């Protein structure tokens, strides 16, 4: 954040000293631990290391901010979440405990009245008792899907996905409704709830989600908690423990070279004699590869030119030579030409980035089992549409309007033939039908959700076009031609973002928890090595809490703990802070 023009001389001096420290840290090329990525997993790893006395670490972050997929911006008088929205659950959730410890949650939480209405395309509202009936049936169908994992019994023949199973249950349920009109209306509500589920799960269609694995996700009790000051406020207490010079922003990692005993000779045999390694170490930054900033982090894509292939090869060769002669286990090569050595690397890059770069990011390449697991899991796109207005126009008692799109041109808002990718023309004509509802953030701020290929298509449109389309939708479903145009529209674009390439992880048909465990498996340079050279963390590496911030946090802490655990058996003092929920409850009981 830039300093105010009236900043005092002492503040400027402090800033200069801080910049000098950062420069010194960046000039230091050898570290015990390098953490790739300053999202929740990276910050959690760094915090756990720092709290346990290990300060010789460096975080390399591609963006020019920390937080990863946690980012809040101001919109009107509101803090809006462009990424992570809620703390999912209370009991046993480290994010809730951290927020409580730092006073980020209001104890006196007066629930807002929540009235949901559902409307058809012709503007008719569905009677609430019908909406409630279908919702209760849907929840029952979803719980039955979860039981396959929990109870380990087999589904009906040829039913492999959650979508297939729920649609079978819906069909059986609707067979009991005689009136065709009533049956059609109920089907539209089920379709809307399935679209909603794609946003919760992070996929294009529930037909993509493995039925036997749905129950592998563990839901923590206590509901969803919103931080009044925005989810990004939880980043401050994490960053406060980290020296500024230990975090390098706007520094995307190009390649991670790691020693592997069996492949070391092969990896370095092609190294050319030309080019001294110190020229790489001192190479100037490449201004062409500009990182995104916090206000635009999920609304615009940074533009940068690719370096020439020969330059890439020279850098890779130089890094390989450094690794060959170094005592370090890992050499990390950055886009700006900087090269860092480390004993250990914790890679927290999102699954979307690994899917795109896994075969080129690591030298030698990742083991085949890891690459196959990265390919098997799903990393879907879920985007948000925020609409800000000058004045309220929705009935004050209504908190959400569900959009019951007629499914005649493709059920579940998808292309008629599900075996084929929807073509460009179909998406152009139908993308907006994947928006399942608009909910009130405040009286003058609405939020719409969209997922899958329709979300990816929306990311190619201007915010003006999206705002116009949303206005048409609201006028149609509310049967009100005077619904105003929004004064501002903000759309996220998580798929286009080079440092995320999507939203969050789901278990696709044919994949399993084993794939998550495979990705999380650390890599050793030799069979006799006591600590791994490369560790992995992030929500995609937690077998029960994938897709969540608390999953990312716990995975980062676990990776750090592996490096902190002594080689020889001795008394281990585990971290115990006041954020531990059981200690907190005990404290209340004692008082």
UniProtKB/TrEMBL annotation:
One of its GO terms (molecular function) is polyamine oxidase activity. Residues 40-260, 321-563 form the Amine oxidase domain. Residues 1-30, 275-310 are annotated as: Disordered. Residues 7-20 have a biased composition (Polar residues). Residues 280-293 have a biased composition (Acidic residues). InterPro entries: Amino_oxidase, FAD/NAD-bd_sf, Flavin_monoamine_oxidase. SUPFAM superfamilies: FAD-linked reductases, C-terminal domain, FAD/NAD(P)-binding domain. It comes from the Eukaryota. One of its GO terms (cellular component) is cytoplasm. It is found in: Cytoplasm. Its cofactor is FAD. Keywords: Cytoplasm, FAD, Flavoprotein, Oxidoreductase. Belongs to the flavin monoamine oxidase family. This is Amine oxidase domain-containing protein. It comes from Anopheles stephensi (Indo-Pakistan malaria mosquito).
